[in-house]
Amino acid sequence: MLCHTKTVLAIVCSLFQFNCSSGTKMTGDLAYFYLGTYTSQLSAKEKEGLGISRWSVNVKTGELIKVGGDWPIENSSHLCMSQDETHLYSITEGSTFRGKRDGYLTIFKVKEDGSLEEIQKKSSAGIGPAYLHLDQTGKYLMLANYLAGNVVVYPIKEDGTLADPTGNAMHTGSSVNPARQLEPHPHAFVPSPDNKFAYVPDLGTDKIHSYEFDDNTGKIEGREDLNVKVEAGAGPRHLIFHPSGKFAYMTLELFGQVAAYRYKSGNLIPIGTYNLVSEGEKSQSAEVRSTPDGKFLYVSNRGHDSITGFSVNDETGELTKIQVISTEGETPRNFNVDPTGSCLVAGNQDTNTIIVYKINKETGMLTSFGKLIKTNSPILFYFQKP
Predict the structure, then answer these.
(1) In the chain, helix, strand, coil percent, each to 5?
(2) pLDDT attached to residue 42
(3) How many other CB atoms sit within 10 Å of the CB of residue 225?
(4) Which residues make Cβ contacts (< 8 Å) with residue 6, sequence separation at least 6?
(5) 3-class SS of residue 205
(6) Selection from 55, 218, 69 nearest residue 136 by Cα
(7) Which of 29, 212, 319, 383 would bridge 310 by S-S if both were Cys, CB 3.0 to 4.6 A apart?
């Protein structure tokens, strides 16, 4: 009888393309990720039940299967998990919370089967939250409010919920683009590899704002002497550190570029700036990711609708362009590389598709698996650890 039940279950899973695994983070060739989506463009009926979902990807074949969700939440445009992956944090990219002009976060408990249970909603202390990141200890959650112009630090309690902020800093200033840079727009909030500093690419001020960070108290203190200016009108967006901790890479959204820096004792020292597409072509760069071994770097290009790949010189941090490949859809806002560095999963926000590429681990070249999966407005891919 037990064998018969398992057979029936397997048939059901196959028919509905549903992975009936438990909450295992990686099984064989399967890697798992949570997907955040936009829902505000949908009708009230269409958005019922939509928000965050959980997927598996076969890193060898590129097969994508939705294995959980959706868990209702509006405009879940950035996700982050606790270090032990027992809790998931999501922003809602909006300007109203409990009847007030404010944004907010939703905190979920992650169950053993990977499903989510909402346990808290928390003000983001400003409108238009856009980015979340843990500090290196996992004790604090860092948040950037794009529209409000401030960054916030939250202590994480033992039960995974957030306490009131220990740090809240407002940016000031503007730059030359009248459509995008009349005021500050922090677009990321990233701790340094040694956790002593934190950096905020600010699209509105054309600057990386630098902070000293105390991981005993969760307090931040501005360090203007460590701020980094970029060319006027460039529009800093997202910043990541290389796995070695020696380098950092930042997208310049409005110029369609990526900038490279050497990290040393709190200083981000410029290495170079690299165009993502050919001269005469237009791009607005969005996400930047590295392979786990740090050999290759990838950047998404909205408007151009492509992914640009670079090889990384592990001695100097310099980049060499190796490829520009179409995402076969419109507006690739976010993408991510699986934990084994075998494949890259990207979302086409405006054509509602996900595409998967195989990564050549020797050359860094991407090859599409030739499958486009339809899903609502894919915005943020967050892979679970193996």
Answers:
(1) 5, 50, 45
(2) 66
(3) 8
(4) none
(5) coil
(6) 218
(7) 319
Give me the DSSP letters along 4-72.
HHHHHHHHHHHHTT-----S-SEETTEEEEEEEE--TTS-TTTTTT-EEEEEEEETTT--EEEEEEEEE
Spatial distance between the Cα atoms of 365 and 309, rounded to a whole number of angstroms? 7
Tokens of 246: 């020696």
Nearest to 140 by CA among 116, 119, 165: 165
- Does residue 99 surpass a pLDDT of 50? yes
Instruction: Specify whether the CB–CB gap between 153 and 144 falls below 8 A.
Output: no
| DSSP bridge partners of 298 | 289, 309
Q: How many residues in the chain?
A: 386
Which residue is associated with the tokens 């090859």?
A: 367
Task: Give the tokens for residue 56.
Answer: 């598996």
Q: Rounded to an integer, what distance in angstroms lies between the CA atom of residue 200 and that of residue 173?
A: 14
Beta strands per DSSP E along 156-226: 167-170, 190-191, 197-202, 207-214, 219-222
Q: How many CA atoms lie within 13 A of 226 on its CB side?
A: 22
- Model-wide pTM > 0.90: yes
Q: Give how far the C-alpha of residue 306 lies from the chain's centroid of Cα atoms, to the nearest Å.
A: 17
Mean pLDDT over each residue of the chain, to the nearest integer: 92
User: What is the C-alpha separation between 289 and 309, in angstroms, rounded?
Assistant: 10
CA distance 26 to 331: 29
Residue range 66-75, pLDDT digits in tens: 999 889 898 9
Cα distance between residue 346 and residue 309, in whole Å = 13
Mean pLDDT within 105-125: 97
Q: Locate tokens 């794009």: which residue?
A: 146
